[in-house]
Structure formats: structure tokens, C-alpha cells
Amino acid sequence: MSELLLETKSVSKRFGGLLALDNVDLDVRRGEIHALIGPNGAGKTTLLNILTRISDPSAGAVNFDGHDLLRWRVHEIIGLGIGRLFQHVELFSSLNALENLVIGAHSRGRAGLLSALLRSPASCNEQERYRTEAREVLELVGLEDYAELPVSLLSAGQSRLMGLARALMSKPRLLLIDEVAAGLNSEETKAVARLIQKLRDDRVMTILVVEHDMRFVMSTADRITVLNFGHRIACGTPAQITSNEAVIEAYLGRRRDDA
Fold first, then answer.
1. Of the candidates 73, 68, 36, 67, which has an alpha carbon nearest to the alpha carbon of residue 54?
2. CA–CA separation, 194 vs 175, rounded Å?
3. Which of 57, 35, 61 has the alpha carbon at shortest distance from 230?
4. In sequence order, what are the beta bridge partners of 224?
5. Cα distance between residue 217 and residue 20, in whole Å
6. Contact 101, 132 (CB under 8 A)
7. Which residues pair with 12 in a beta bridge?
8. Which of 31, 76, 180, 224 would disulfide-bridge 35, Cβ 3.0–4.6 Å?
9. Residue 84 CA to its chain's centroid (Å)
């Protein structure tokens, strides 16, 4: 089995005259937390959209666990083992937290639509199993007390956690996370960092996270890839990235007395 779970080779994406990604190589190892950072407009979300087949690359190749990912359609990605927390979380506001998560589990259901409509024993058993799993996931993200409450009552930060919980319901092997710390206070951010590390350690999950909070990134990531204007300018451990001159100039910035 290859050490790499995900690999992109020379991926480019053009939107008319704008080159959003230019020959980007990315390699994500099994069981690691890999951060993707860079200034606004660097191409981070564009790359995630390609990895989840929302967008096609203009050139390049993407391999996931031995599969040519570009041959798979967007609705097949979850079944392949890729989950995603989007930057903007859309929840079913009229449903409670538990119901939102049960819906997220149907992507791997086997009972079928007709069976669900007829409330067959197989469908009922499946639904009960999903509800049990949903309660476990809510406890994992710290929202167990909100299981029976409408998600419209959740704060912005709690909604982010609900989005993460919903992504976990598909039981992904690779979890893509876009700006999970957005809307969270410092204590919530630390709790999410611990949760992501727990997912890696206890569930042997591989995580690719796009994030602007550098304290979060440096304390959580095993390796970091840096994009700038669609180019990959560095890849390495947090220590290597913080001492990389190209990264300092493009993104992290210099202290005034170093200038």
C-alpha cells in the first residue's frame, strides 16, 4: 500500500484569462493532518473543488488511493471515501441537529428509497443505527446537548461544528476541511484542534485542512503546503515552513525590525 493517499500532479485551473492554479503538486500521506495555506486568492478552495469533483482541472492528474479521481463524478466522491466541510455550512434549518446528521448518513445507506418509504424492517433498522451514530458524532464534536434542538438556534461557531459532524457521518478516509476555525473563539478553536488530532489518532483519518489561523495550523498540522497566486511555493513541516524565506515574503510576513 502506498504511503500517499492523495496526490495531484501538475494541476492547473484556468477561468478565462485567470490562471487560478498553475502546475500544482500536492501529496497527502495516510494518517496525517496536512494544511493548505496561502493568501486570499491563492487557489486553495479551487483545489478543494477539484478534489471533490465540483470543478474540472484545465490540466493535470489527481490520484486518490490508486484511483484516477478525475474519472469519478461529484456524487460518487463520498462513496469513494472523501468527505468535506465547506467554507459556508448549509444546514436544514427546520430540522434538529440529530435529523441533520441522519440525512448525512444516507449517502452510504443500503435500504433504498422504496424501502424507506414503506418503512420496511431493513429501513427502520438502518435509521436506528444512523441515529445512534449521529448521537455519538454529536458527542464527539461537543454538541450532544443540542441533539433535539433546531439547528437554527446554533451559533455560527456551533454551525461550523455541525458541518464537521455531518461530514463525519459519511465515515470518510480523507476529510477535507475549509476554514473550520472561522467564527470560533479561541477556546473553541483549541477544542477543534484537539478534535482533529483525535480523528487522526483514534480513527486513523487523513485530513486536509485549509485554514488562515496560523496558530491553529502550526499547532495541528504534520505538514503544510503553501500556495501563492496559484503556485506551490513550499511544502514541509511547520518548522520548515516558518523558516522558509519564500513563505515569509509571500504570506507570514516579517517583523518590522527584520525588514
1. 73
2. 15
3. 57
4. 35, 236
5. 23
6. no
7. 59
8. 224
9. 4
Q: Which three cell numbers stand for residue 133?
A: 451514530
- The dihedral through the CA atoms of 240, 31, 41, 232 has a sign that is positive
Mean pLDDT of successive 10-residue stretches along the chain, which has 259 residues: 90 95 97 95 94 96 96 90 86 89 70 52 77 93 92 88 90 92 83 92 93 92 96 96 90 54
Secondary structure of residue 89 in the 3-state scheme: coil
* pLDDT at residue number 122: 65
Read off the C-alpha cell for 200. 487522526
Non-local CB neighbours of 128 within 8 Å, separated by 6+ positions: none
Which residue, among 196, 191, 156, 194, has the nearest Cα to 176 in the 3D structure? 196
- What lies within 8 Å, CB to CB, of 205 at 6+ separation is 31, 172, 173, 174, 175, 199
What's the pLDDT score for residue 204? 87
Q: Looking at residue 118, what is its pLDDT?
A: 54
Question: Which grid cell sits at 22?
Answer: 498553475
For residue 86, the SS3 value is: coil
pTM (two decimals)? 0.87
